[in-house]
Structure formats: structure tokens, C-alpha cells
UniProtKB/TrEMBL annotation:
Biological classification of the source: Bacteria, Candidatus Methylomirabilota, Candidatus Methylomirabilia, Candidatus Methylomirabilales, Candidatus Methylomirabilaceae
UniProt name for this protein: DUF3365 domain-containing protein
Record keyword DNA damage present: no
Signal peptide: 1-24
Source organism superkingdom: Bacteria
Pfam families: Tll0287-like
Domain Tll0287-like: 70-189
UniProt keyword terms in alphabetical order: Signal
InterPro entries from the UniProt entry: Tll0287-like_dom
Polar residues biased stretches: 267-279
Organism: Candidatus Methylomirabilis tolerans
Region listing for Disordered, in residue ranges: 267-289
Length: 289
């Protein structure tokens, strides 16, 4: 049995290499429901782990270090007369916009009960679950029957002074007393199925990676038009007025996320998955922990 699990894990890791590190193949045929044996909560956790790595890298090593060497970041970065890049929350928004264009039915957004942009305010069941995230700091997994979506909500904690200052000083912010380690919002993922096949999981991971790449390349495209464009190549902002190329940026993401992602896939491949139970409305049961 151990040998069988070993080969299953090898096959899963080989498939991941094709999807994530080489190139995404054409869409695969839809799998039968019986193949969708991985609870969607496990997929959400893997997506969250990848996003955490990229979010931290962007916040500290691109925005934080870049400001020290002359790069600017602004909420108006998309405007033609603003020579700046996206702030951390806006980089996530760029990633989410790219996901919307991908055929993979994954949605991502950053919401709050005190958002700078009122369109990102949690309401109804999402607000109720967010209050539980704030109280427990534990993720919430639940089903929204009105939109027939599985939802995962993970806390977004203020860990950088710059984020706090930005929100406290922002004229549109409804709250001006944020402090370090406050739960400022929740990274929220949505997917229509309560369970997924390994193929669906790998395609969704690949879609997220592609969205990170699209978001970063949008910034590079803007940076090349600066009056004094940074050198783009092998170096990072901590080394001077530089930006890593898209290949270097994505290579670093692959390097940092590989240990967790590969371990999670290996675990899924080596253990039978019971699948998510369904409720009377046809969606997965509400899971809280």
C-alpha cells in the first residue's frame, strides 16, 4: 500500500510540474462527480497559502523596499499621469481581475466591515462570518445559498505600519484608529463546488499563478513608461532602483510556495478523500472552525 501511495504522490507532483512550472496544457475534460473527492476547503487553504507568500513578498520586498530606493506606490497608480505601482490591496485586486477573465470559476476579493472602498463592505451572512473571523482569528468556510457559492474567509491582519498609516489617513476611510495586529479585513475566496477533482485543483492553482503573473506584468508595463524607469532584470528593489523581471518574480513565487503546495498535494494524493457532504439546498454543509 505504501508503494501505491508513493506512485500516486509522484503522479500528482508530476502533474503539478506540468501545470505550474512548465506551461498550462489545454483545458481537460470535465471530470465526473465521483472524481471530485477533495473537499473545496482543502483547495481554499492551498490558495490562501500561496496568496500569503505573494502578499508578503509584494508588501515588504517590492513596496516596502521600493519606497526606500525611489519607487512610488499609489492607489491612483492606473492613471496615466501617476508614476507609481499598486499598493498591496490593489495588487490583490489586479490578481482578482485577472482571475475573472480565466475560465476557472474561482473568485477572490478583500472585504472588510470598515473598507476604504464602500463596494468592499461585508454585508449579511458574510458580515456575520467576518465577525467570527475577528473574534476567533480562525477561517470560516460556509455556503451562500443566494449565489450558490462555497466561501472561504481568512483574516487579513495589519502587520505593516505603512498599511495602518495609509488607512488611518485616507479621507474615505470610515475608521482612523487602526493598530498593528488588528484584523482589517478578510481575504475571501468563492468557488461553486463543494468538492473538486485533482485536475480541477491543479487548474485552479495554475489560474491563480497566472493571475499573479498578469498583475505583476501590468505593473512592469506601467514602470517601463516612467520618465526614469527602473532597471528590470535580475535585481530586486532592496538592491537599488530595480525591479525583478516577470520570470524572476514568478520564479521566486514558485520557489517559496513549492514546499507547502507540494506537501499538501502529496498528502491529498496519499490519503482517501471522503468528499464534502451536501446540504438540502445542494451545496456543501457550512463548516466553521
Amino acid at each position: 500500500m505504501a508503494k501505491q501511495h508513493f506512485w500516486i504522490a509522484c503522479l500528482a507532483l508530476g502533474a503539478l510540474s506540468i501545470y505550474l512550472f512548465v506551461s498550462a496544457p489545454p483545458p481537460l475534460e470535465e471530470k465526473k462527480a465521483a472524481d471530485a473527492a477533495i473537499p473545496v476547503e482543502r483547495m481554499f487553504e492551498m490558495l490562501k497559502a500561496e496568496n500569503d507568500v505573494v502578499r508578503a513578498m509584494w508588501t515588504k520586498e517590492v513596496v516596502g523596499a521600493g519606497k526606500q530606493t525611489g519607487l512610488k506606490f499609489d492607489e491612483r497608480w492606473r492613471e496615466a499621469d501617476v508614476e507609481a505601482g499598486p499598493l498591496p490591496a490593489l495588487f490583490l485586486r489586479e490578481t482578482a481581475k485577472s482571475l475573472e477573465k480565466n475560465p476557472t470559476p474561482l473568485s477572490l476579493f478583500l472585504g472588510s466591515d470598515y473598507p476604504v472602498n464602500s463596494a468592499n463592505r461585508f454585508e449579511g451572512l458574510q458580515l456575520e462570518k467576518f465577525q467570527m473571523v475577528k473574534q476567533t482569528l480562525k477561517p470560516q468556510f460556509f455556503f451562500m445559498p443566494d449565489i450558490q457559492m462555497q466561501v472561504a474567509m481568512f483574516s487579513d491582519v495589519a502587520v505593516v505600519e505603512g498599511c495602518i498609516q495609509c488607512h488611518n489617513k485616507h479621507e474615505q476611510s470610515p475608521k482612523h484608529d487602526w493598530k498593528l495586529n488588528d484584523v482589517m479585513g478578510a481575504t475571501t475566496w468563492m468557488y461553486p463546488s463543494g468538492s473538486v477533482s485533482m485536475d480541477e485543483l491543479l487548474r485552479t492553482l495554475a489560474a491563480l499563478r497566472q493571475s499573479f503573473k498578469d498583475a505583476y506584468e501590468s505593473y512592469l508595463e506601467k514602470a517601463r513608461k516612467f520618465a526614469n524607469p527602473p532597471a528590470i532584470g535580475e535585481h530586486w528593489p532592496a538592491e537599488g532602483y530595480f525591479l525583478p523581471s516577470s520570470e524572476v518574480f514568478m520564479g521566486e513565487i514558485a520557489k517559496r510556495t513549492a514546499p507547502h503546495t507540494l506537501a499538501a498535494l502529496s498528502s491529498l494524493a496519499s490519503k482517501p478523500q471522503p468528499g464534502s457532504a451536501t446540504n438540502k439546498e445542494g451545496g456543501a454543509n457550512i463548516v466553521t472552525r
